[in-house]
Amino acid sequence: MAPKTLCRRCGAYLSVPSGVRTVTCPICRTVTPVARRPHGVHHAAVGFIKGLISSIVSPGAQQPPLHLSSSESLRPGGSGGSQLPASYPRARGCKKRALLVGISYAGTSKYELKGTVNDVNCMSFMLRQRFNFPSDCILVMTQEDKDPYKVPTKYNLRRAMRWLVDGASYGDSLVFHFSGHGVQKLDTNGDEVDGYDEALCPMDFEYSGVILDDEVNATIVRPLGPGVTLHAIVDTCHSGTILDLPYLCRISRTGYWQWENHSRPSGETKGTNGGLAISISGCSDSQTSEDTTVLSGSISTGAMTYSFIKAVESEPGTTYGRLLTGMRATIRDNGGEFGIPGPIGTFFRRVITFSCAQEPQLCASEPFDIYRKQFVL
Predict the structure, then answer these.
(1) Which listed residue (177, 181, 238, 262) is catalytic?
(2) What is the pTM assigned to this prediction?
(3) Distance between the two ends of the chain, CA-based, in angstroms?
(4) Is 237 a catalytic residue?
(5) What percent of the chain stands above pLDDT 90?
(6) Catalytic residue chosen out of the listed positions 28, 201, 237, 249
(7) Closest CA to 216 of 147, 164, 170, 173
(8) Signal peptide position in this chain (predicted)?
(9) Measuring CA to CA, how many Å separate 323 from each of 178, 187, 371?
(10) pLDDT of 277-313, one tens digit each?
């Protein structure tokens, strides 16, 4: 039987003729490099990922193209590129929807994280209890999920991000939360001020590649129409500008948060289609984020996710400025003297310690007064 590889764009299985270095996908026409056979420990890690992929996509089955034309939309049932898994929430008509992704990279000792699943569970609880998100409008993706369509492979993540924004209309509130690994890649199209793209690492990133900030922006930022608001809460390394938004809020020497225009050198506009996109990330592009050890039961969470939830719960109705200041203080003060208050604090039942130096970042598609604008999801 001829060896197989996955299309790096749409995730379709491709037959690899002997001796070739690249193969062209017959569905989306993307050229995918053929990976060399791994060795040693790396071979075991990649083999684990391949096994998971094999359980999700039957060898030889053609997958629908991910990128839809402006006239297409994602729908449950149906056929072709418009089909959604039956297990995905039916979000059309739901004014609040969320995509929560927690990747543990289990089985890869070099990359494994301990707190990511806890992160999405806590975020889901907060969205439902504090901001009234309906349970049936929240899509949770973790590596431990028994539903193969909710396992966060690159192909599934791309489809889920499309689900998040598909059909959003005036007054809708969307949330994207990602807890996992993030990396930097050398910028190849000249749209990064520092010369590096930021990227999210799906579960199968070693085999299928990462998701660059260019694609994240094109998928969940640019389609946002008037009156639609997206909050991306990203707990990864190098996540400061992961949405490629043009405005970055940075703390000044006087202690106040100020907006900086980070429009691309190429002049390319990466804003919305009339909506508002806001990202709150765990650290700047040059920094790393960490798992944190919770003393009660030795349970881990992401430092950013914990500090975010604590800031929200400590001061309901807070502004974006006070939210950032609260997150920053929590991280710098080793979790703070007191835990998360109220029922969500009871849900956590934990005291946290931090050993990292990271600065939460706020980016937006347009500037606003962070000391007056109330934080609402």
Answers:
(1) 181
(2) 0.72
(3) 51
(4) yes
(5) 32
(6) 237
(7) 164
(8) none
(9) 19, 31, 10
(10) 999 986 444 434 444 443 223 445 567 788 888 889 8
